[in-house]
Structures are given as structure tokens and as C-alpha cells.
Amino acid sequence: MKAHKISDKELIGSYLKGDHICLEKLISRHKNRIYAYILMITKNKELADDLFQDTFIKVINTLRSGSYNEEGKFLQWVMRIAHNLTIDHFRKSNRIPVIDNSKNENFDIFENLNMMDKSIEDRIITDQIHKDVRKLIELLPDEQREVLYMRHYAEMSFKDIAEVTGVSINTALGRMRYALINLRKLITEKNIVLTQ
Question: Domain 3-92 classified CATH 1.10.1740.10?
Fold first, then answer.
């Protein structure tokens, strides 16, 4: 059976029976989303590396202690751990996380910019549009910005976002709605053109 067909639950079960390769498969399966989320919040690769490692240390310790309650939501559970560890870090250091995605070229809030076969000029214009949008996103309230990043970067469902942030699905949806409304207002106020 191929690794991608094995469920998270089966991998956890095999890991707990002593097959340590299964833990590596679990981490490999979910690491990009989790790491991207942490990095977006921290804006610091070294800190993101540390928090990512701390997240999986906590995951391993919880699995080994038998405290993990399998509900088919392994990724959401790990994202919640990553979220809480990141927030705890900022609370301890008395710093508020400011998200900067200027180095992430894949971000496209409107999902309508096509990068295929563009000229250098088109790419430069598109890059500038992305930078302008990211600067505007920085002006959003923390809760709205967080939901927007979880939805568009981590590609999480609103149900998963609600679980990770500890709010209702309606609250998560509302925060996304207000984030988009506020972005439109900012685009108008700042007279930013988001087309080529």
C-alpha cells in the first residue's frame, strides 16, 4: 500500500506500535502547511524552525502518553498546537505578531492573477500588485488577517480555522467577510490599482 493512501489514524497506530517511519510520513504529509502558517505569523525563519520543532515534540509526547484522542482531525489538532505555541511565544516576549508575506510569491488573495507565459514587464507588475495587497493586509485587524492567511495560505476550511482559533464557524466566516470588505475599502482609499 502506498503511503499517501494510508490514513493519519493508521499511521498514528503504526507509530504507537513502534514503526517510527510512520511518524516521519505523518510529519512529511503535513509539514508544509504547518510550517507556512508558523512562518507567516513569526516572519522569522529561525523562530519558525524552533516553533515547528516544538510543535512536533509536543505532538510526539502527546501521542506517546496516550492522550491523543483520534477524531480523524490530526492536521487540525497539530495546527491548534502550532497556533497556541506561537501565541504563547509572543505573549512571553510581549510582542504582537505582525504577518509579512513579502517573500511568499504564491500569495494571491483574489486568485485571479495568471502567471503563465508572462513577459518580464508583466511579472514585475504582478509582483508589485502582490506587494501592494500584502501591505494592505498588514493594516487589517489581527483576527481578520489571521483568518485570511489560514484560508489562503494554509488552505484551511472555515471549520478547521474555527477549531484552531477557538471560535465558531460563523465568527471565522464573519472575520473573512470583514477582511475582504476592509481590503476593498483600503484599495479605494489608497487608490491602488490591482490590475495589469
Answer: yes
